[in-house]
Every structure is written in C-alpha cells, then in structure tokens.
Specification:
Elements (H helix, E strand, L loop, with lengths): L1 E5 L5 H18 L15 E7 L2 E11 L2 E9 L8 H16 L5 E7 L3 H6 L3 E2 L4 E3 L2 E9 L1
Parallel strand pairs: 4-5
Antiparallel strand pairs: 1-2, 2-3, 3-4, 5-8, 6-8, 7-8
Length: 144
C-alpha cells in the first residue's frame, strides 16, 4: 500500500529514509553523482511503500506549469521484479488526478533503458533523447 505525504508531514526519520534510498539507487547503484536536492521536494507529494517498517519503493509528484511531473521513481534492489514500479506509477496517476485539478498531462524524464516500461503504462516519447548527469533520458508524456 502506498502512503502519500506532503513535504511538511514528513518526519525527519521518513525524510532521511527517502533520501537514503534515493542516494542508494541513483548515486551508488547507478554510479552517478548528481545533485538530488533540487528544491522540488518542498512542493511535492511523496509516495512511499514500506515493508516491515522499511522503505522499499518511492515516487515523487509535483505540478509545474499545469503539467503533473512524476519523478524519482525507484524500488529498493531487494524488492524489484514484484510489480512495485508499476504500482507506483498507477498510484501516482490516481494521486495526480485527485490533487492537481487542471493538469492535462503527466510528464516524466525516463532513463532510456526504461522507455518500454513507461510505454506499457501509456506514456509516449516527446522530443529527442538527452543526457542528464551522464545517463541518457527521454521526456515522456501521457494525456489525462
């Protein structure tokens, strides 16, 4: 079950768990040093899936220029291949529909190797591939 938190409701321990998991997946596993602290967390909803009190999956959503943005989608390495990433996307879309009235599209910047995964969820590529922090990405969108 996914639990949603606005930034202001995150406890210090919950925020620490989120940042630790994001660092473990995006920095350590992907061997990519980048600035994860981008000041978007403060305006975002944070979706968390826990198992036995441990954060195992996470997604962040926020609104920008009448588009909903999905980002920081990740699943802990010990919990992959169990459908959690799909669950994160489905639940993020539901939260967007209920929280961001007026948004007509959802956008995300997918790592290129995950393009097929997002296409299965109904997202289509828009624009050319681009490099971000040494990893190739592609902007993808889905109409609401």
């Amino acid at each position: 079950m996914i639990i949603w938190y606005p930034y202001q409701a995150l406890t210090l321990d919950k925020l620490y768990a989120i940042l630790a998991l994001r660092a473990r997946v995006f920095v350590v596993e992907q061997n990519c040093s980048y600035n994860d602290l981008d000041y978007k967390d403060q305006v975002a909803w944070h979706g968390c899936i826990e198992k036995e009190g441990k954060l195992i999956a996470y997604v962040r959503i926020y609104e920008k220029e009448q588009k909903a943005i999905i980002g920081r989608v990740l699943v802990d390495s010990s919990s992959r291949s169990k459908g959690l990433a799909t669950k994160l996307i489905i639940e993020a879309e539901k939260k967007i529909v209920n929280s961001y009235i007026g948004c007509t599209h959802i956008a995300l910047d997918a790592q290129c190797y995950l393009q097929a995964f997002y296409q299965k969820q109904g997202y289509i590529p828009v624009g050319a591939e681009f490099e971000e922090d040494g990893i190739m990405h592609i902007r993808m969108e889905k109409a609401l």
